[in-house]
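BUG: 3D viewer hangs when loading the predicted structure for this chain

Environment: internal workstation, default settings.
Expected: structure renders.
Actual: progress bar stalls at 90%.

Input used:
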Amino acid sequence: MYIYELEFKVRDYELDVQGIVNNSVYQNYLEHTRHEFLLSRNVSFADLSKEGIDAVVARIEIAYKNPLRSKDEFVCKLNVKKEGIKYIFNQAIFRKSDNKLCVKAKVTTVVLVHGVLTADFAPFDELVD
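Structure tokens produced before the viewer hung:
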């Protein structure tokens, strides 16, 4: 089950020589979706950073299933859960034309408050399903 989704359209400059979206671009899609999700819940990375709070990616696992091509429209979906001190974003990208899974990702993040790892961070704890 996903709790948030964001729609995109592939831009030509995101393609590699094979005419498919470059593997590294998918991380941009995933990150933008996480940021928009947080903003939709009134959590701003910029505001947190000013307070000495940094949510950082500790690990990313990506499985590439079906390629996206020029002008493809797609939707990036996510849910989030907490495991100990980690916040796990499970994300997936689906091509809209046929609803095929293109990417499946597990993004593990942690929160540092003034450089110290923290296990409890209320603004993120409220996001967990």
